[in-house]
Design a protein that fits this description.
Length: 402
């Protein structure tokens, strides 16, 4: 079973997606998500120029050898572009292997460890009253876990609060738009929101919050401690995570669980965070952390240290990534939560898939492979549209973290 064709499809049904499609000499196809929000064309070029030429003629069954060839063979190892490209190849090869075996990929990964994949949705609004209404809407939809993001009095905008309440697309302009941030205003306001949410919805609803890389460790420690009465499932990305040991300081001050990792692209980005138990959930994904093969390695390391998975699943990760994530989520022993930001109807039409939401869970379906594909004819109707993520400055103009 040799790889006979390989092509990269860039499409923009409401937002840009990059998809790798492989075709074997016996007609099997596989897809892999290669979307990197704001840097889509970099990954498309990496694939087209440096990966596809070496794939043609390779044995499609040799997933791990191909992964090692693309990782070690690049010489310039790791990084979001390289690892997203490798991820797309790995995912597409697992799709093909499942189809060749006539089995859904989760069966090849050891079978199901649970009946369904518990997901969380995104409640967000400017005011606390509107936040409460949004949380109620997600509870009414059947979600068992809800991420809460709120506007900050005095700030024109903040991460995670958008006009569209189902689909969140932060890459809102061809050139980075500029947001303004105030940590003091944020730290003063967020605990008051969770006090209201917890009082309204009681102790049973899993609540999460994304800090989105904006604090220092001691500020994160303060936030974590102020949120302890509201028993969050996790506080996400409290600080930028290049300095993994910096999380020791947060850990010394608060028991609020920490989730980190959506921007990580290899096990080395989180090896210390996991082995020192500095985090409680690792948020690495199929699309950005080297595919199904490497993600399994990260989650297996995490399992040794009581760390659970909590994979990123925003709108800018395509349905191909979501489908693959569910096969991993279903099959690992230390699953925690799966983020599930929905895609628009136009995106779902371009990426027909078998996963379904029911009663707070996602189920990948029983189709051989990943249970997702790309409609290339429909995809061709949505040309790429330049879009970049915003940047963030402090009130005094200092560049900060978006
Ligand atoms: C966020 C993402 O979903 C999340 O946890 O951090 O929405 C993130 O901002 C986007 O994926 C960036 O493209
Ligand atoms: Mg996040």
């Amino acid at each position: 079973m040799r790889i006979a064709e390989a092509r990269v499809v860039v499409t923009c049904p409401d937002r840009n997606f990059v998809t790798l499609k492989l075709v074997t000499d016996d007609g099997l196809t596989g897809v892999g998500d290669a979307t990197l929000n704001g840097r889509e064309l970099a990954v498309a070029a990496y694939l087209n120029e440096h990966v596809l030429p070496v794939l043609i003629g390779r044995d499609a069954a040799r997933i791990e050898d191909t992964w090692q060839f693309l990782y070690r063979g690049a010489y310039w190892r790791r990084g979001p572009v390289t690892m997203t490209a490798i991820a797309a190849v790995d995912t597409a090869l697992w799709d093909i292997k499942g189809k060749a075996a006539g089995l859904p990929v989760y069966q090849l990964l050891g079978g199901r460890c649970r009946d369904g994949v518990t997901v969380y949705g995104h409640a967000n609004a400017e005011t606390v009253d509107d936040v409460l209404a949004e949380v109620g809407r997600y509870v009414d939809m059947g979600y068992r876990a809800v991420r809460v993001q709120t506007g900050i009095p005095g700030l024109a905008s903040t991460y995670g609060v958008s006009g569209d309440k189902m689909f969140y697309e932060p890459a809102d302009a061809a050139l980075p738009s500029e947001n303004v941030w105030s940590t003091p205003a944020y730290l003063n306001h967020v605990p008051t929101v969770f006090e209201r949410v917890r009082a309204e919805f009681g102790p049973g609803l899993a609540l999460l919050h994304d800090v989105h890389h904006r604090l220092t460790p001691i500020e994160a420690a303060r936030l974590g401690r102020s949120l302890e009465p509201y028993a969050l499932t996790w506080m996400e990305d409290p600080v930028p995570a290049e300095l993994q040991e910096g999380f020791r300081l947060i850990r010394r001050h608060t028991t609020t669980p920490i989730a980190v990792g959506e921007v990580f692209n290899s096990i080395w980005d989180c090896q210390q965070l996991i082995s020192e138990q500095l985090i409680d959930y690792v948020r690495t994904t199929v699309v950005h952390a080297g595919g199904i093969s490497h993600l399994r390695r990260i989650f297996d390391l995490a399992a040794l240290y009581h760390v659970r998975s909590g994979s990123h699943g925003a709108t800018d990760l395509s349905p191909v990534c979501m489908a693959a994530a569910l096969h991993v989520d279903l099959s690992i022993p230390n699953f925690g939560l799966q983020e599930y930001m929905r895609h628009t109807p136009a995106t779902d039409a371009v990426f027909p898939h078998s996963y379904r939401f029911a009663d707070g869970y996602l189920h990948p379906g029983e189709e051989p492979g990943l249970g997702v594909d790309i409609d290339e004819d429909l995809a061709a109707q949505y040309p790429y549209r330049p879009a970049q993520l915003p940047v963030n400055r402090l009130v005094d103009g200092t560049m900060h973290n978006w």
